[in-house]
Amino acid sequence: MREGTQDGPAFYGDEVLASREQAGVSQSALAKATGYKVPYVSKVENGHALGSERFAEGCDRFFNTAGHFLRLHRRISDAGHPQWFAAYVKLEREARVIEDYSTTFIMGMLQTPAYAEAVFRAAYPTESDAGIKAKVEARLARHSVIEREDPPRLWVVLSEASLRMIVGNAATMGEQLEHLLIEAQAPTVTVQVLPFDASTPASHLPLTLLTPHDGPAVVYEEIRHHSRVDDSAGAVAEARDVYERLRADALSPDRSMALIYSILEEFTHEHAPRPHPRHMGEVQLQRRDRRSVRRVGPRVRIIRRHPRP
């Protein structure tokens, strides 16, 4: 057990570790019971990651703790968000359908750890490392919503600018775009890109429509230092109209994947370290040899604030 002041993930990890040791079972047994691998369990127990809601539910079943780990997970996750965002996080967890439009940054639920950290470090330059870590963990915990056995239908429209703007560095962007391509393969996730050559966007501000299992939809809108969750019929209808126009102007899901792939290739090749002049002969030889190798991957045509917590 760690002594002294602990952050949320560290405390949660100690709770998992204590329950496992009390039950007298191995990490391998817990991993098998929760549907994860041993390194994942180790990462949670060491406080390096909060883990997902699915893992928390698995722990509750395995240790027969009547929802303790799920409640603790949600409490720690909510604590990492500012108070004005907590209402949104709760609605997000309970939604049947989530429809999001992101203009500057890729939607928080789909961000990688490195990308999320870069976003927060840019937005909060004086924040401590511990503070940044807490914000990143809270954001990553939101991903568990789409890991559930009954995930919501997630539909995301991303501006092309959010894919091309370098957040962190080229390596961070490459990892983020690869992650986005993988997430988009899920049957409940649809990603569309609003390209630069589309008509003038119906909105330049991000918005999210949340439709619960029962009850009316709500809209979440934000500008710098201000946000609102509005369930009034007029606000939801207006947001729905804007979102439908954005979705209509965006590329189809297949063409969106092709564009993301092409941008990923640009980051991979254009931002790669350039060889020293004396090695150019070797590089040219490698390029000549590659001409005889069939290209893997789709042939694509390149179509030339304050972040959410």
From TrEMBL:
<dbReference type="InterPro" id="IPR043917">
    <property type="entry name" value="DUF5753"/>
</dbReference>
<dbReference type="GO" id="GO:0003677">
    <property type="term" value="F:DNA binding"/>
</dbReference>
<protein>
    <recommendedName>
        <fullName>HTH cro/C1-type domain-containing protein</fullName>
    </recommendedName>
</protein>
<dbReference type="Pfam" id="PF19054">
    <property type="entry name" value="DUF5753"/>
</dbReference>
<feature type="domain" description="HTH cro/C1-type">
    <location>
        <begin position="16"/>
        <end position="49"/>
    </location>
</feature>
<dbReference type="Pfam" id="PF13560">
    <property type="entry name" value="HTH_31"/>
</dbReference>
<dbReference type="InterPro" id="IPR010982">
    <property type="entry name" value="Lambda_DNA-bd_dom_sf"/>
</dbReference>
<dbReference type="InterPro" id="IPR001387">
    <property type="entry name" value="Cro/C1-type_HTH"/>
</dbReference>
<feature type="compositionally biased region" description="Basic and acidic residues">
    <location>
        <begin position="272"/>
        <end position="287"/>
    </location>
</feature>
<feature type="region of interest" description="Disordered">
    <location>
        <begin position="272"/>
        <end position="296"/>
    </location>
</feature>
